[in-house]
């Protein structure tokens, strides 16, 4: 396991992040405490130091387990958790991005995690009702208090992130250093605005669901077909995504690796050498799945492999991106000098 600087901070995190949403059985899809501990140990023994949880994951059990697992060597691990989501559905101020919920949620997380500080606090998702100024000032106060070291933002429009970081810059407040988004071969719409924005602001990107809810492992390729038709279990189970999954399986067989490793290797290959890169969040329900995902560290896709995957999963960038890249517009903007301008 190698380590990367997290965004424009000096924080050093492992090149893969362990997602712990499956730590706990409250949601019916997670792992018991013993299995969760084994997965944590496998990740740590591989050199992983970056852990991601949230206040609502398995009704708080995830934070409790993570806090217990890292307690004996707390300073070694980079602990990330989130606020925004409710813990009490009946309390109108018990959820959201506003200051009252922010402070309440952080205090509750600190207790569950049994720690004095959070290395990275994520805004879990944008509520659309709280002003950016209120959010950034509150987060800056948490950093000033020592309860939080760095901040990031998840599941939020690019224009909001840009506005918030620009506001913080000119006010002298702490800025977001990371962006968490859904990104995979079957979810590439983030490449229109969110990914370019992150690279421009030098934000580390931590993609969640890098295996497309398991579709990219190929395990649904046969199950998705019923009587010659696609099953309707999820909007993600469609002809387009099935085609992508089949290509992933094909390349995996040719390389002698697993489809999950190919999907993760593609995502890691989206690193830009001039930015802080991409740190996939890997989650699993058992040790075997986790060990398989960790195997992506040894997989390097060829240029031909990447081209095949890019082509089969290609999206329409839409306006204005497609318009600006058209030959006619490029000619209007640069004239005969496009290839002479060094960028």
What attributes does this structure have?
12 helices; eight-stranded parallel beta sheet; 343 residues; TIM Barrel; alpha/beta; 12 strands
What does this 3D model show about the protein?
With 343 residues, the protein is of the alpha/beta class. The protein has one domain: TIM Barrel. 38% of the residues lie in helices and 14% in strands. It has 12 helices and 12 strands. It has helices at residues 33-45, 61-70, 99-113, 132-145, 158-171, 194-200, 239-255, 259-268, 287-294, 303-312, 321-325, 327-334; strands at 3-5, 12-14, 17-19, 50-52, 78-83, 118-123, 148-154, 176-182, 204-208, 225-226, 229-230, 281-282. Strands 9-8-7-6-5-4-3-12 form an 8-stranded parallel beta sheet. Strands 1-2 form a two-stranded antiparallel sheet. A two-stranded antiparallel ribbon has the order 10-11. Strand 3 (17-19), helix 1 (33-45) and strand 4 (50-52) form a beta-alpha-beta unit. Helix 4 (132-145) crosses helix 5 (158-171) and helix 7 (239-255) crosses helix 8.
């Amino acid at each position: 396991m190698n380590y990367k600087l997290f965004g424009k901070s000096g924080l050093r995190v492992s090149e893969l992040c362990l997602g712990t949403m499956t730590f706990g059985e409250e949601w019916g899809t997670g792992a018991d405490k013993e299995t969760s501990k084994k997965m944590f140990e496998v990740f740590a023994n591989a050199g992983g130091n970056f852990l991601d949880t949230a206040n609502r994951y398995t009704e708080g059990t995830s934070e409790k387990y993570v806090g217990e697992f890292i307690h004996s060597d707390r300073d070694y691990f980079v602990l990330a958790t989130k606020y925004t989501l409710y813990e009490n559905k009946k309390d109108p101020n018990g959820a959201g991005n506003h200051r009252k919920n922010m402070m309440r949620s952080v205090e509750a997380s600190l207790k569950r995690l049994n720690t004095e500080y959070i290395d990275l606090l994520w805004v879990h998702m944008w509520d659309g009702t709280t002003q950016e100024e209120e959010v950034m000032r509150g987060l800056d106060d948490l950093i000033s208090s020592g309860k939080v070291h760095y901040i990031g933002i998840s599941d939020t429009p690019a224009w909001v992130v840009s506005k918030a970081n620009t506001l913080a810059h000119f006010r002298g407040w702490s800025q977001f250093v990371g962006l968490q988004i859904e990104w995979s071969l079957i979810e590439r719409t983030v490449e229109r605005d969110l990914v370019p924005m992150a690279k421009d602001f030098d934000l580390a990107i931590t993609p969640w669901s890098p295996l497309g809810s398991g579709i990219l492992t190929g395990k649904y390729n046969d199950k998705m077909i019923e009587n010659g038709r696609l099953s309707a279990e999820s909007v993600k189970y469609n002809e387009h995504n099935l085609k992508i999954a089949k290509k992933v399986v094909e390349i995996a067989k040719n390389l002698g690796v697993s489809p999950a490793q190919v999907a993760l290797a593609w995502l890691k290959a989206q690193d830009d050498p001039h930015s802080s890169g991409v740190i996939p969040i890997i989650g699993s329900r058992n040790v075997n799945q986790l060990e398989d995902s960790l195997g992506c560290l040894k997989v390097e896709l060829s240029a031909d492999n990447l081209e095949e995957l890019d082509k089969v999963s290609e999206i329409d960038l839409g306006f204005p991106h497609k318009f600006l890249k058209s030959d006619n517009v490029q000619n209007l903007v640069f004239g005969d000098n496009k290839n002479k301008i060094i960028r």
